[in-house]
Amino acid sequence: MPRYLTEFVGTLFFVLTIGLVVISANPMAPLAIGAALMVVVYMGAPVSGAHVNPAVTLALFLRGKMPRADLLPYWGAQLLGGLSGAYLARMFTDQTFTIAPAATASPGVAVLVEALYTALLALVVLNTAASGLVAYDLPDTAGARVLWGTGRGDQHRDGLAP
Predict the structure, then answer these.
(1) pLDDT (0 to 100) of residue 13
(2) Hey, which end of the chain has fewer CB within 10 Å, N or C?
């Protein structure tokens, strides 16, 4: 249950952030959305994997990184979290938001761009978070640590990389 709750909360805050910055028409919206995703992933990764996207959940399932029994509960938590985030954005601003392609984009181009970037996101997750981490504790710091995906399982080393 904590995994599903984490997916719900992470997706809620991610969609809430998207809604608030899209409504505000802030030119820094991509930065705010990226920062929100980063925070949500740091918060949720140790508990649920922080998929925060049904396409990522599907990719991890197809790769054999999550059991079939978790697929529908993850999707349900993400759907409810997304709807709740959108509702809160509406409640906070008394406006709705629409995420849509440029008026000049054809439906085919819009679908292609969405498919390409969704595939990119899924590939990044599969080849980093789902493939193992190396952690280097940085010397002479108060516990600063550098993490990155390796594809070779979890490892830990003290000191800087050779």
Answers:
(1) 95
(2) C
Q: Is the pTM of this model over 0.85?
A: no
User: What is the topology classification, in CATH, of domain 2-100?
Assistant: Glycerol uptake facilitator protein (1.20.1080)
What's the chain's Rg over C-alpha atoms? Answer: 18
In angstroms, the CA 74 to CA 82 distance is 12
Q: If we measure between CA atoms, which residue out of 85, 75, 87, 53 comes closest to residue 4? A: 75
- Over residues 55-87, the pLDDT tens digits come to 989 988 998 888 999 999 999 999 999 999 999
CA distance readout (Å), 81 to 85, 89, 135, 148, 161? 6, 12, 31, 28, 39
Residue with tokens 């906070």: 92
